[in-house]
Amino acid sequence: ALFAAGLFPGILAGLSLLVPALYLARKYGWENPETTERPPFWPSFKAALPALFAPVIILGGLRSGLFTPTEAAVVAVAYGVIVGCLVYRNLSVRSLFELMTDAAVTSGVVMLIIALAGIFAWAGTTLGTFQHLADTLLSLSDNSWVLLGLVMVLVLIAGMLLDAVSIYLILIPIVLPLMNHFEWNPVWFGILLAMNIAIGQFTPPVAVNLMVTTRIANIRLEHTIGWALVFIAAMSVSLLLVALMPAIALWLPEKLGYVVGPW
Predict the structure, then answer these.
(1) Which domain holds residue 125?
(2) Dihedral sign from CA coordinates of 256, 258, 262, 263
C-alpha cells in the first residue's frame, strides 16, 4: 500500500522540482535549444534501452512479489554490473574493485549509525522515554494539525542531521503514539514522513544527499545552498498539498484493493 501510495506524491514532487529547474535554466541560459546540438533521439534511446530495463525489472519484481525491496537492491546491482560489463563495456575489474571498496566504506558508516540508532531505539522504548516524549508533545496542544506541524518540523530537523534509516529507527517509536492518538491514516502519515525526510536530506547544515550530489558534480557544498533552497521550497509546497489532500496518496492504493483505512 505504501509503495502504491507513493506514486502520485512522487509525481507531484517531481513536477515541483521540474518547474523551478526549467525556470532557472531558461533564466540563466544554461541550455539554449537553438545553440545546443541535441543527439538524435532514436540512437540515444536504443543506446539507453538496456539501462532503462533496470527500473522495469525492479518495479515489476516488487509489484509481482518476486523479491523484497532489500532483494531488489541486489538485483539492481547485479543487473547494473552485467549491463556495464557486457553491454556498455565501461566497467573493468579494477573499477569494480574500486566501487566495491567505496561501497564497503559507505555501508560501514551507515551500518554503524543503524546499530547505534537501534540501541538508542531499544533503550528509549525500554525506559519509556519515547512515551514520555509523546506525552509531552500531546500536552502542548489537542489540535491534530498543530501536532502534525510539530512532528513535521521535528522530522525535518532530524533529516537535516541524520540519514533516513536512522531517522525511522529513532523517531518512529516517538511519533507512533501520536499517530494512534489522533487516528492519522498510517499510509498517508508514512508518505508525509518519507517526503519530509527527503527534504531534510537536502537541507543544510549537514544535507547528506546534497553532499553526495556536490561530490559527483565536483563543486563545493556552500556554492549550492542558495540554489538548493529554491528546490526545498518547491518540495515543501508538494508536501503541504499531500498533507492537506490525503487523496493524492490514498486514492491509488484504495483503487488497487489495498486496505488503507479511513481518510
Answers:
(1) 2-27+111-255
(2) negative
